[in-house]
C-alpha cells in the first residue's frame, strides 16, 4: 500500500506501505483465489491449511501486508492451540485408545535370542561339563545292585567305590593332574572324549577335524571379532570419505582397499562356516546378515569387473556397521524396538497401503492428465491443447500451450508482453474447415505432483501424507475440478496423516513403554546404585567422625563454654568464618536473589535491544556497551561473593551454581575479546563474539521453580536423547553413503548466468542429449527463431561470434479481446563470424564431435532438417524473433548436493524433517549422469530412495525422539511417584501438582448453587423463567443462530444482504439485552454478578450495544466489536455435561496448563537465547528468497517470529541456506556502485571501511550456521515440542483413570447439594461452625444422618475430633472437606489441601514462582504449621470440660461435685458441639 493513493487523498494504510510512486490495485486472492478469509468456507479451509503447518507463514505475511503487522498474534495463537495442542491431543486419544483396546497376550512368547559367538574358554568349559555328564550317566547305568547307591547331586558325580571312581577317571591312573593335560597328551580336545564300556576314551581327530576346530577357535576369538569390528568401521569411514572430484590415484587406492576388505570379509565368512558348521553359523542372525552382504559384495565386484553398473550394491556393506549393536546396548534396544514395531504394525501397514492405493486410483480418475497449465507464459487466453490440424498421436499426452492469434500474424513470430513468443500457424482439420489461428508457446507447465499414472499417484499421495506442499496439490485439484475437490485432499490429510500416521506413532510409543530392560543392564544399575549408597554411607561416617574429632579438640582446648543450665554454648565464628557468616546471610537472602533476578531481566532486555540495526557509532550503542560492562562486573562480583560465602567446594557441588559460573566466565571472556576486537576494527568478529552473551538469560532457569523442574528433567533425559541422536547419525551415515553412490557428481546442471535459472533445453530448441557439461562450459550461445521453432548456436569468441541486422520491421497490434499488446512480423539477418562459421562448417567426425560438444543447432518441434545444412554452409540465417546471447555455466544447486558425505548427511537431515525435500527428490529423478544436464523424469526409480529413507529416517528414526523422550519421562514419573506418592509429575512443581489434584476433584463434583426464591411476584415470574433448563437451551439456540448469521457475511456482499445481516444481529443483541434484564430482575444485581458467566454475558451485551450505537449514530464501522459475541459459544459447555469425550478433552487442556506453562517458559527462554544469537550472527545477512523483509534477524521481535516459524518446521532449511550465503553478499553503500553486490574480498572493496562504505551481508561461518540451525531444530522442534506431547499424553491418561474415591457418585452429589445450601454464592468456603450442620444432613459414610440419637451424637463428636480438615481462618474449603471425609472412610492419607493453594475453584492455575523458598527459619516454619478443624473442636471440648470442672469445684459435696462436674463437663461438651 502507498501512503498516497491516486485521486483518493492522503490515506495511511494499516498494513504494508508501498514505495513512493507505487499504489495498490485490487487483484485475486493468493493461490488462484483459494486462500482467503472472504467467506466462512474459505476461512475454514485456510485455517485448516495453517493448522497443518504447511504454508501458514505465507498466509500470515499476506495478512500482515494487507491488515496489520500485529496479526501474527492471531496466527501464532492459532498454531499453538490448533497444532501444538489439538493435533497432539488427537495423538493422545489414539494412543490411549490403542493401548486400552489392544488385546493383551497373557502367555509369554518365547523369543529366540541371538546365539552370539562364544569364546573358546566358554566352549571348552561346556564340552567338559558334557564329558562329566557322560561319566555320571555311565556310572549310574553300570552301578552294582548291592552297594552304595548312586546319588546325584547338583552337578556332582555319583558316589562310587574308590577303585571304580579311579577306573572311570583314567587321567588319574595315568598320572595327569587334570583332564585337560590328559586329553592334550592324547592329541585331542575335550569334545573328542567318548565313552567306551563306561570308560572315557580320547578319539584322536583327523586333519580335517583339526582344521575345523582351528577355524572355530579363530571365529569365536575376541581378537578376531575386534579386528572385524575395526575393519567394518574402517571400511565405513573410507566409503564416507569419498567425494566428487577425487584424484585418480585416490580412487585407485580406494578400489584396492575395497578388494582387500571384501576378500577379508569373504574369508571371515568361510572361516565361520567351517568353524561353526553351517547349522551353527545360521543360528546367529548377524552371521546370516554378514553372509548376505558378502554375497552382494562379490556380485558387485564381478559386475564391476565385467563392465556392469552395480556399484551401488557396495553400499550394502555399510549395513555391517549395525553389528555394533552387539557391544552398544542402546543401539540394540532401539533396533529391537524398531523390529518389534514392524510385526505389530503389519496390519496397519497393510491398511495404509490399501488406503494409498484406493486414493491413488481415485486421484487418477479425478485428476489424471488434468494438472496441465500455461501459467508460466503469463499470456491470457493460452491453454494446453492439441490443434485441430494435428493428430492426437502427434500431440503429447500433456498438451503444449497455445495462444490465439489472428490471420495477419500467420507465419510470423508473436512476442507477447510477458516475453513469451511463438509462431502463429493456421491449424485446420481440412481445407474446407474454418481457420484456427494459434501460436505455440511451448511445452505446458506440468507440476511434478500429478495423478497421471499409478506410480506418480502413489508418490503424490505419499507427498501429501508427509505434509510437504500438500496444499499446492489441493490448489491444482481445485483449479481443475472445482472447489469440491478440496474434500478429497482434506480426507486424505485427516485420515492418512492425523489418524493412520498418528496410529503408527502410537504403536511405536507403546513398544517403547512395553520394552523391558536387559537383565544385565538392571544388574549393572543395581550394582552401581548399591556402590553409590555404600560410598554415601562411608562419607557420612567420615564426616561424623570428623565433626566428633573437632568437637573433642574444642572440648579439650577449653574453648567450649556452658550456660547456667549446663548446656554447651555454640562458639561464635572466628577468623575467616567471621567474614563468611554475613556473606552467607547476604547471598542466601531472598532480597539479594530478587535483585539479581531483576538485573538478569534488565540485562536480557538490553541484549534484545542491542540489535544489528543499532549504529555502532551512536550514543545508544555506547550506552549499551557501558551497561553491558557494568552487568558483567556485577555478575562477576555476585559469583565471587557466593564462592566466598559458601566455599568453593560447596559452591561447585550445586549444578545451578556451576551454570551461573560458566555463563559469567563466558561473559567475561566475551567482554575482554570484544574490547580487543573493537580496538582493531573487526566489527564482524565483534558481533559474532557478542552472540555468547545470549546465554545470560539461562540464569533465570536456576531461579524459577517451574523452569527448574523442566530443565532438570531435560538434563536427566540428555543421555537417552543423545543415544537416539547417535542412532540417527548412524542411519544418516548409511543413507548418506548410499546417496554418494547413487547421485555423486550427477546433480550438476547448466545455468543461465544472466537470469540465474536452470536452462530448459526444449524451450531453446535444444535436444536434451546435447545439453552436456562440455556444451554448457562452451560459454556463450546465440538463441534465435527459425520458421517454426527456436534454435541455439555455438558462438566463438563470446558475443563477437554473431552479428545481426533487422531486415523487417515489427508490427504492433492491440488485442482488444485480452487487452494486451502483441508484436509480430519482425525479421533479423543473423551472420556468423569467421571463427563461428569455421565450427559450423566442420564435417565428418569433427562435425559429430562439434555437434556433441557445442550443440551448434538443434530444434524441438517441426524444425525443417534442411535448415541445419543451409545454415552450416551459408553461416547465416534469418531469425523471426530478436536474437539474443545466452551465457551458461555448469554449477551445482545452491542448497543441496551429494558430492561429499557432509552435504549428503545434511540434506538427509533436512529430508527427515520433511521440509523442502521434494525439489531434491525431483532433481534426483532428473539426474542422468556425471557431465549431463538433467532430463525430465529420466530415472523415476530414484523416488524409491527418498520414500524408503523417509519411512526409516523420518517415520521411524525421528519419531524415536518422541518415543524415547516420553519413555524417559514416564520412567522419571514412576520414580517421582515412588518418592512423592501417586500423581507426581515431572514437569510441574509441588504446588502446581496440588492445584491439578484440586481441579480434578472439582471437575467431578462442584457445589450446587441455590438461589433465594424472590418474594416479589414479578421477580418470581422472571425467576421461574430464567432458572429453567429450557430457557438456557433457548438462549443457546439463539447464540448458535447469532453465530450462524455472523458467518453468513462475505467479501463483496450486496448492500441489501449487509443490511439484512446488520438488522438480524441487532435483533439478537436486543434479545440478549432482554436476557440480562430478566436475570437481573429475577436474581438481583448482587447475585447476578456473582456468576462469572453472567458477568461475561453482561460485558458482551455492553460491547454489542456500544457497537450498535457507533454504527447507527456515527460513520465509524464497529462490526469487529460484534465478534465478541462468538465467545458466548463457550456457554454451550454448560449444557453438555453428558458429553464425556468433549469434557475429557477440555479438562485435559485445563490440567495441562501448569506443565505447558513451564515447558512454554523454557521454550521461550531458548527462543530468546537463539533470537539474540541470531541477531548478532545473521542480522546483516543479504535479503534473499527466504531471508526477506518478513523473515530476518534484524530486530528481536522479527527474530522471535522467525524462530517460532522454524520450530513449526516451515522452510527452516531455506532460511538456513540463505544464511550460508558466501557470494555476491557485500552491498556497496557509496560511490557509483551503490546498491551493487560483490563477493567478500573483491577488488572493489579494497581501501573501503566496513559499515561505512559497504555492508557485509555474508555468512559469518558456513559450518557455524549449520550447527546453529540444526541445534535449534533438534532442541526446540524435536525435544521441547515433544515435551508438549508428553504433557498432553500424561494428563490425558491420568484424567481417564478413575479417581479411587471410596464414596459413590450419589454421595458426592448429595454432599455438593447440601454444601450449596450453606454456600449460597459458590465461594467454596463455609464457616467452621457450619461443619456439624452439613455432617448431620449427610448419610453415612460421609455424615451421621440416619444413626440413632445417642449414637449419632457420639459419631459426630468422633468425626469432628479426628477429621483432618484445614482450618483457613475460621473457614473450611469444599475440596478439603470432601477429600478428608472420603479419605477417612477409606483409611488413606488425605491427598491435598486446597486451602493451602488459596483455590477458589474458579481457576487460575498455579504459575511457577521465582526463588527457591527453601531457606526458612524455624519461626517461619512454626508460623506456617497447619491449623486443623479437629484442633478447633478439641479446644472447644477442653474449654467446656474445664468450665465444668470449675463449676463442680464450687459445690459442697466433693463426690457429688465430682460426679456432677463430670456430667456437667459432658453436657457442656455436647452443648458446645450442638451450639457449633
What does this structure look like?
The protein has 1476 residues and is an alpha+beta fold. A hairpin with a 5-residue loop joins strand 10 (561-562) and strand 11 (568-569). It is built from 49 helices and 25 strands. The strands form 8 sheets. The protein has a 7-stranded antiparallel β-sheet, with no helix packed on it. Helix content is 57%, strand content 7%. Helix 30 packs across helix 32. The model is unreliable at 1-11, 103-117, 138-165, 851-866, 1387-1424 and 1454-1462 (pLDDT under 50).
Quick description:
The chain has 1476 residues and is an alpha+beta fold. It is built from 49 helices and 25 strands.
Main beta sheet, described?
7 strands, antiparallel
Write down the overall geometry: globular
Calculate Rg over CA atoms: 42 Å
The number of helical segments is: 49
What portion of residues is helical?
A: 55-70%
Strand order of the largest sheet: 5-6-9-8-7-17-16
Distance between the termini: 75 Å
| Annotation, overall tally of beta strands | 25
Derived structural class = alpha+beta
Topology (SSEs and partners):
Blueprint: E1 4-5, E2 9-10, H1 30-33, H2 40-51, H3 56-66, H4 72-101, H5 120-141, H6 162-167, H7 170-173, H8 179-185, E3 193-196, E4 199-202, H9 207-219, H10 222-240, H11 248-282, H12 285-305, H13 329-344, H14 346-367, E5 383-385, E6 400-404, E7 413-416, E8 421-426, E9 437-442, H15 454-466, H16 470-481, H17 486-514, H18 519-556, E10 561-562, E11 568-569, H19 576-587, H20 590-609, H21 619-646, H22 648-653, H23 655-680, H24 683-690, H25 705-743, E12 749-752, H26 773-777, E13 780-785, E14 790-794, E15 802-808, E16 811-815, E17 820-824, E18 827-832, H27 834-840, H28 844-854, H29 866-874, E19 876-879, E20 884-891, H30 901-912, H31 918-926, H32 942-980, H33 990-1004, H34 1017-1026, H35 1029-1046, H36 1055-1083, H37 1085-1090, H38 1092-1113, H39 1140-1178, H40 1196-1207, H41 1212-1218, E21 1226-1228, E22 1237-1238, E23 1254-1256, H42 1262-1296, H43 1305-1318, E24 1325-1327, H44 1331-1337, H45 1349-1362, E25 1371-1373, H46 1374-1386, H47 1418-1423, H48 1429-1449, H49 1454-1475
Antiparallel strand pairs: 1-2, 3-4, 5-6, 6-9, 7-8, 7-17, 8-9, 10-11, 12-20, 13-14, 13-20, 15-18, 16-17, 18-19, 21-22, 21-23, 24-25
